[in-house]
Structure formats: C-alpha cells, structure tokens
Design goal:
This protein is mainly beta and 360 residues long. Helix content is 8%, strand content 64%.
Length: 360
C-alpha cells in the first residue's frame, strides 16, 4: 500500500511539473503580434497590452486594455515593445525619438533606417511623442483640522501641498506649508511657506537648477515677509525603485521685512545667500513611504545669520489615493530680530502635524 501511494505521488508530481513547464514555455515563447497596442511582459512572464503613458523615476505608468491605468515598478517589467514613436532619455546622451523595444539587458531604438542599442540601466525616462500635458503633472494635498470648544476654544488648521511637472529633461516643483492656530480667540500660530524650483537634467545624475525661490511669513518669529531667489546645482545620489536621494546647493540673495523692530533699527534687510539642501524618499513597504527634507541657509547677521527648515513625514496608504500623513517640522533662526518691545523670538519652532492626504 505504501509503495502504491509513493508511486501515485510521484506520478502526480511529474504531471504537475510537465504542465507547469508547458505553461512557462508558452509564456516564454509568446511574442506579441504587430498591432496598435503597446505590450509589456512582467518578470512573472505575463503579458499585458495597452498604452504606455510614461516612465519616470523607475515607475512605469501603463493603461492596460483590461485593467485600466497601472503604476508598475520598472524592475518588475521584463520586456517592453511599443507600436509608436517615443521620446527616450538615456543617461549621458541627448533625448532621442524613435520606435522602442526593451529587453532584460538592452534598450533598442529605431530611428529611420538606423538602429541604436543602449544598456538598460542607462534608461532614464520614456514619454509618448503625443503625450498629453496632463500626464506630465502629479501632486499631493494634505489637510489637518482640530476644532475644540467647551473649557477651551481651539481652532487649528495645517496644510501641506505639492505639485510637480516632469519631462525627461526638466522638472518644475512647487509646494506650500501653512499653519494656523487660534486658542480662546487669540492667535498663537500663523505661518506660511512657499517654495518653487525649476531643474534641467543633462541625462546623468547632475542637474542644473537655474531658478529656485522661497517665500516665508511668520509674525510670531517677527518675520512679516521673507523672500529668497537662488540658482545652483544638484546631484542624484540614489535613484532606485524604492529610494530617491538628492542633494543641491545654490547662491542668491534674500530680502526680509520684520513685523516690528527696536528704535533705530532698519525694518528690512537684503543679504547674499548660500544654501544647501537634501531630499530623501524611501518606500518602507508597499503601503508606507518616508520623506526627509532638509534646507540650510546662510545669511548675514542682520538677516538671522543661519536658518534651517527640516520636514520629515511618514505617509500610509488608506483607500485608493487617500493617505494618512504624520509630519514633523523644525524651523530655526540663529539670530532672531528683536521686536519693538526688545523681546526676542525663540530660535526654534517645532510642529507635529497629522492629516489626510490626497494624491493625484
């Protein structure tokens, strides 16, 4: 009886092995027919047909004929075969346009009668030549609200928002951070920060930032308005499907107007600026992301001498494009300007924010 059971087990194992091998061979041998679709093959050997929307930051956006719009990590794509003309950005090479196919090692571009091959790891981005302007944009809005009444009347609102326009050769970024708190009818926080920058990519890790600007306002730090304009360079230290890390630096000038000053002191000041910053993003899990932004600014003593802005955030997926964000902010001015009554604002401000975020 035992011998028969072992023989039956071996027979079933062989049957399943042959069936699996036959299925794998079918998946491996299949080649998409020439048609009006783009085709991608996943590392599981499955094929999807549809339309490539974009490849940016190691993420392929693909409009599947059956499953709708999908965001797929580029490392999970084994092959790609396109049917149209694409703009292809290759590291260390100018952007070229042509028919495209990608296998496990090579990027193959056909331009007229000429065929060019590049290593797959040098591929930076792909965009359809007829790409819609809307496909270049992405962003996120996060809002937190706390309202209490009774023994203490409190209204607290914080907001984080960011938008990005990306092409194979350029990137436009803009973001906003604001906080408002009114307790027992008295304001105890009211600050706003807006950043904007424009980057040009050369095809390698180095990029030029011809313009970056910042506006900041916080009456409780005695800053009625502060504006900074700079130009500089940046470098991508890491750019993988799970981790992005870049550093940048710039020079420019800063203008600040104070809310109030001591008698005999100027109410505004202009200063040269030297800055450095780093942005780090890490995909902790498939449903949790970590972000760290550090911006350091050096000015003359009349403008505060040294300032930094640090934001760290943990974002957790909830439902669809809705996330839960927990963020911590640390702002510091080394030499705050004394107010008219000779009081000096605190050097450091800390904020913990919890909000719901919507990605688009």
């Amino acid at each position: 009886m035992l011998t028969k059971a072992i023989a039956l087990f071996l027979l079933l194992s062989l049957t399943f092995s042959f069936a699996f091998a036959e299925q794998q061979a079918t998946l491996t041998d299949f080649m998409p027919p020439p048609d009006e679709y783009d085709w991608i093959q996943l590392t599981s050997y499955e094929w999807l047909k549809g339309e490539l929307l974009s490849l940016f930051d190691e993420e392929l956006r693909f409009d599947s004929d059956n499953f709708g719009v999908l965001d797929i990590d580029w490392e999970d794509v084994r092959r790609f075969r396109g049917h149209g003309t694409y703009g292809i950005s290759i590291q260390g090479y100018r952007t070229i346009a042509g028919q495209l196919s990608v296998d496990e090692q090579h990027v193959i571009v056909v331009v007229g009668p000429e065929k060019r091959e590049f290593p797959r790891e040098r591929l930076v981005a792909i965009t359809p030549s007829a790409e819609r302007e809307l496909d270049r944009w992405s962003g996120e809005v996060s809002l937190g609200l706390n309202v209490r009444s009774g023994n203490a009347d409190v209204v607290e609102l914080n907001a984080l928002a960011g938008i990005e326009r990306r092409t194979p050769r350029s990137r436009l970024l803009a973001d906003y951070l604001g906080n408002f708190n009114e307790t027992e009818g008295q304001q105890i926080a009211n600050n706003h920060r807006v950043n904007a920058s424009f980057d040009r990519f050369s095809g390698g890790r180095l990029f030029w930032r011809p313009f970056s600007g910042q506006y900041f306002r916080d009456t409780f730090q005695n800053i009625k308005g502060q504006g900074t304009v700079e130009t500089g360079l940046g470098y991508e230290l890491v750019n993988t499907p799970r981790t992005e890390w870049e550093v940048s630096g710039g020079i420019g000038f800063n203008f600040v107007r104070y809310d109030s000053v001591e008698a005999g002191q100027a109410s505004d000041n202009t200063s040269p600026v030297l800055s450095a910053s780093t942005d780090y993003e890490f995909e902790v899990t498939s449903w949790m992301d970590y972000l760290l932004e550090i911006q350091v600014t050096f000015l003359d003593e009349e403008s505060g001498s040294y300032q930094h802005h640090i934001l760290t955030s943990l974002s957790t997926d909830l439902i669809g494009d809705l996330d839960l964000d927990v963020s911590f902010v640390w702002d510091r001015t080394q030499k705050p300007q004394p107010r008219a009554d000779s009081s000096v604002p605190e050097k450091d401000d800390y904020r913990l924010m919890v909000g719901l975020a919507f990605e688009f």
